[in-house]
């Protein structure tokens, strides 16, 4: 089972964190730091598997990772998972990101976090591998994107709300209020 998926940059800044096993937030932060220190100090020409850190289960767990440009993709798995299978899964995930974002980079993970999480959920859910066929994953992502566009997307909701308020037919505001000898001039609200 996959217990965690961690993506961080060369400086240890987390870009995507997904735990499939409960850890308190403070312990999660320690796991991220320890994992970064274990993975980042290794040479590029050594094996991409190592024993899990002391915080995530020690020798019962393995860290399987790939380093692409400025990002580390780390999967924390238990002993029942195949190291080569997980390496292949990381490759499928990265290639899928690359296809969806056209030359994926760290900024895509930052500014399109919702889409990255959606892609990850197509690949892994609840710590179990769902799909490894990149074409099927991309097809589902494209379907989701088309659905969002047909609905106007969540990002368009605030603009639609403002437009709806502007187009409301409200009764005309009085321009002058007369109370006895008092005459009050109401300013125009047409700048909205």
Q: Which percent band covers the strand fraction? A: 15-25%
Shape: elongated
Strand order in the largest sheet:
2-1-5-4-3
What is the H-and-E element order? EEHEEEHHHEEHHEE
What gap, in angstroms, lies between the N and C termini? 55 Å
Task: Specify the helix fraction band.
Answer: 40-55%
Strand tally: 9
Question: Can you characterise this structure?
Answer:
The chain is an alpha+beta fold. It has helices at 25-40, 83-101, 106-111, 113-123, 134-150, 157-166, and strands at residues 2-9, 14-19, 49-51, 61-68, 71-78, 124-125, 128-129, 176-179, 182-185. The longest helix is centred in the middle third of the chain and has 19 residues, at 83-101. It is elongated, with a radius of gyration of 25 Å. The relative contact order is 0.11.
Question: Can you give me a brief rundown of this structure?
Answer:
The protein has six helices and nine strands. With 192 residues, the protein is of the alpha+beta class.
List the helices and strands and how they pair.
Layout: E1 2-9, E2 14-19, H1 25-40, E3 49-51, E4 61-68, E5 71-78, H2 83-101, H3 106-111, H4 113-123, E6 124-125, E7 128-129, H5 134-150, H6 157-166, E8 176-179, E9 182-185
Antiparallel strand pairs: 1-2, 1-5, 3-4, 4-5, 6-7, 8-9
Helix pairs in contact: 2-4, 2-5, 4-5
Question: What are the salient characteristics of this protein?
Answer:
single chain; 192 residues; alpha+beta; two-stranded antiparallel ribbon; 6 helices; 9 strands
């Amino acid at each position: 089972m996959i217990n965690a998926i961690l993506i961080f940059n060369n400086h240890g800044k987390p870009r995507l964190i997904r735990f499939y096993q409960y850890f308190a937030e403070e312990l999660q932060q320690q796991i991220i730091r320890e994992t970064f220190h274990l993975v980042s100090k290794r040479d590029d020409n050594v094996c991409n598997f190592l024993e899990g850190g002391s915080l995530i289960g020690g020798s019962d767990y393995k860290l399987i990772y790939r380093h692409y440009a400025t990002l580390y993709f780390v999967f924390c798995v238990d002993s029942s998972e195949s190291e080569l299978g997980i390496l292949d899964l990381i490759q499928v995930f990265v290639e899928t990101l690359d296809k969806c974002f056209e030359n994926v980079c760290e900024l895509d993970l930052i500014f399109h976090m919702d889409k990255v999480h959606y892609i990850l959920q197509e690949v892994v859910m609840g710590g179990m591998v769902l799909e490894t066929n990149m074409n099927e994953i991309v097809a589902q992502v494209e379907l989701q994107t088309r659905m969002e566009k047909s609905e106007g997307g969540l990002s368009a909701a605030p603009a639609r709300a403002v437009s709806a308020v502007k187009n409301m037919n409200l009764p005309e505001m009085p321009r002058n209020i007369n109370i006895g000898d008092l005459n009050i001039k109401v300013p125009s609200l047409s700048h909205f």
